[in-house]
Amino acid sequence: MQPGDKINTDSAQQEIAMLRKRLADAQRMTALGELISTTTHEFNNVLMTIINYAKIGMRHKDEPTRDKSFEKILAAGHRAAKITNSVLGAARNRSNDFEPTDLERIIQETLVLLERELSKYRISLETQFDSVPLALVNPNQIQQVVLNLLINARQALSEGGLVIVKLSHDKAANMINLTVRDNGPGIPQAYLTRIFDPYFSTKDGPDETGKGGTGVGLATCRDIIEMHKGKIQVASTVGKGTAFTLKLPVATSSMTMTPKAPTFGIQVPTTPSADVA
Predict the structure, then answer these.
(1) The pLDDT of residue 237 is above 70
(2) Which of 59, 197, 251, 265 is disulfide-compatible with 100, CB 3.0–4.6 A?
(3) What integer pLDDT is reported at residue 265 of this predicted model?
């Protein structure tokens, strides 16, 4: 070993760490770009609903028609706020900090962004949320993982099917289990041992929505979960479907006393008249 080898090794390790960080940042920006792409058409549909019912309300002077128009406009406004807040939530706080986090909220925010896509492909969604404690995670990174798993499940179900999202508490291990399951064609056993390898993919390329096919997604998911001192597991049966389970650490009791609340960009006031169909 030459005198300069230690310095060179340290320099190489620093460069590798920097490149890893840049790759992670690029992947987060890609995930955010997919979120925006996913929600653009849905947001446009909301705007068209508002415009069309505003025109109806202006044309018709009778009270029942105007009341119905106002109700539809209000409902669409709430929907638009939910979409915008979910995108802002995904973009907020790009640090690597971990904090006590409500995983159900993370899932619900993500599902808002995918409602139109699931509906387009006639995919039913079922949620099974047990009462679970807060998890000690980075909210943005976990949302990135959940989004990836949900998109994969949607892509496995080309036309119709069922996606189940489940939360449960493994008290013995002091972990929270987050499972995304589909009843699609399943993954052959020969692929399961490689499913988390970088650049390995069972897909030919991106689908018509531009998602999937690079093999980066699940490898990144694994890295994120391992960084959280958690585990990601996959179980699949050909012809029956696939389930991915995230095992994430529970925040300690001292941490859960003052969890950091998310910061959203839009607040919609609620009134007694906001209960619309």
Answers:
(1) yes
(2) 251
(3) 37
